[in-house]
């Protein structure tokens, strides 16, 4: 199949993106989470006890989602910037909420994706202020531009 063929002919992009971005059921043990993040198992247990991260297993079998990997990494980044653990966890939760909203916008609004003359075209659906027109994002090596068509 030719790579330049429109992506929307290859697959239903909206369904694909929803499937890729949905909450997953991949769970890591505490040692895998520790290895992935550089945070000790003892610290992770403390963070669970304080409610900063969620444990999906039992007390003796800690299990953590891939989303928790990003939460732990975020907390660690903010701590490295000088924030307290509590402030780091709060900021990480705010960033996580922001990421969920961006993901929702993406899955709600992307109608199709195609490629034309080296540009990626993303149809974001009806433009609310102009209900007769669709908002199209054109992305290439120089940046992103928007059109109403």
Structural overview:
- It is a single chain.
- By secondary structure, this protein is an alpha+beta fold.
- It is built from six helices and six strands, in the order H-H-E-H-H-E-H-H-E-E-E-E.
- A four-stranded antiparallel beta sheet has the order 3-4-5-6. A two-stranded antiparallel ribbon has the order 1-2.
- A hairpin with a 2-residue loop joins strand 5 and strand 6.
- The radius of gyration is 20 Å and the shape is elongated.
- One of its GO terms (biological process) is regulation of DNA-templated transcription.
- It holds the Pfam family MerR_1.
Summary?
With 149 residues, the chain is α+β, with helices and mostly antiparallel strands. The protein is 47% helix and 25% strand. The chain folds into two domains: 7-20 and 109-148, no CATH class; 22-107, Multidrug-efflux Transporter Regulator, Chain: A, Domain 2 (Orthogonal Bundle).
Task: Reconstruct the topology from this structure.
Elements lengths: L6 H4 L2 H9 L5 E3 H8 L3 H9 L13 E3 H15 L4 H25 L2 E5 L2 E9 L2 E11 L2 E6 L1
Antiparallel strand pairs: 1-2, 3-4, 4-5, 5-6
Element-by-element helix/strand order: HHEHHEHHEEEE
**Helicity level:** 40-55%
Largest sheet: 4 strands, antiparallel
Report low-confidence residues grouped into runs of 5 or more: 1-11
Radius of gyration: 20 Å
Which structural class matches the secondary elements? alpha+beta
The end-to-end distance, rounded to whole angstroms, is 29 Å
| CATH classification, class level of the largest domain | Mainly Alpha
The global form is: elongated
What does the average pLDDT come to? 86
**Within the CATH hierarchy, at the fold level, what is the topology of the largest domain?**
Multidrug-efflux Transporter Regulator, Chain: A, Domain 2
Topology, number of strands: 6
Proper CATH architecture of the largest domain: Orthogonal Bundle
């Amino acid at each position: 199949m030719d790579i330049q063929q429109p992506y929307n002919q290859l697959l239903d992009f909206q369904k694909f993106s929803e499937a890729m971005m949905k909450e997953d059921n991949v769970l890591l043990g505490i040692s895998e989470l520790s290895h992935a993040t550089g945070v000790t198992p003892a610290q992770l247990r403390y963070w669970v006890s304080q409610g900063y991260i969620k444990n999906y297993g039992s007390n003796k079998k800690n299990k953590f989602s891939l989303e928790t990997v990003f939460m732990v990494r975020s907390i660690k980044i903010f701590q490295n910037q000088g924030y307290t653990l509590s402030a780091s966890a709060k900021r990480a939760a705010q960033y996580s909420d922001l990421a969920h909203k961006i993901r929702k916008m993406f899955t709600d609004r992307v109608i199709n994706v195609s490629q034309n003359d080296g540009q990626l075209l993303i149809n974001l659906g009806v433009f609310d202020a102009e209900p007769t027109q669709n908002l199209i994002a054109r992305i290439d090596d120089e940046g992103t531009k928007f059109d109403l068509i």
